[in-house]
Write a structure and sequence with these properties.
6 helices, alpha+beta, six-stranded mixed sheet
Length: about 160
């Protein structure tokens, strides 16, 4: 029952969103991509710092949630953060997609040279311009066997006066 509630919330929250305005070439280029291909393209564009194509994959009002508690960016803010960089490489190792009409929720495990195992989750919405990312959330999966020691470190970090936005 929980997944149905999540899906209903995603549909209600994201269905009125319009896709991000993009040059005609980019729209045509991405219109026919399958949901898997959209996520593969996202990682490819990020690794080559092809920010125009990367952000064309997002909805106009899309959201990127990073690993730090303060990282909750709308597309414009995330674009400002990303464009000066040389990109980043996260290699998908597994991916699960669950489709509910014009909404797909996904979960993928990723490998990164600096961080090792990571997880990307999010929502894709089917639009007239193809599948668009409504939300992408990057996180670090913590094994249950070390979860208490890791969350203790996080709590101590904030208790030491570091801010959580």
């Amino acid at each position: 029952m929980g997944i149905l509630r999540l899906i209903l919330i995603c549909i209600l929250c994201f269905s009125p969103l319009q896709s991000r305005a993009a040059p005609t070439l980019a729209i045509n280029q991405h219109t026919q991509l399958s949901p898997d291909a959209v996520l593969d393209a996202l990682h490819q564009y990020a690794s080559s710092a092809d920010w125009n194509n990367y952000f064309d994959l997002y909805l106009n009002k899309g959201v990127f949630i990073g690993t730090d508690a303060s990282e909750h960016w709308d597309v414009t803010s995330f674009e400002s953060y990303a464009k000066p960089t040389k990109g980043w490489r996260y290699m998908p190792t597994t991916r699960k997609l669950v489709r509910h009409n014009n909404v797909i929720v996904f979960d993928e495990l990723l490998e990164n040279q600096s961080y090792g195992l990571c997880r990307g989750t999010g929502t894709l919405i089917q639009t007239d311009n193809g599948w668009k990312i409504a939300q992408y959330h990057l996180s670090f999966p913590i094994p249950n066997g070390i979860a208490k020691s890791i969350t203790k470190q996080i709590n101590n970090y904030y208790k030491a006066g570091n801010k959580q936005n």
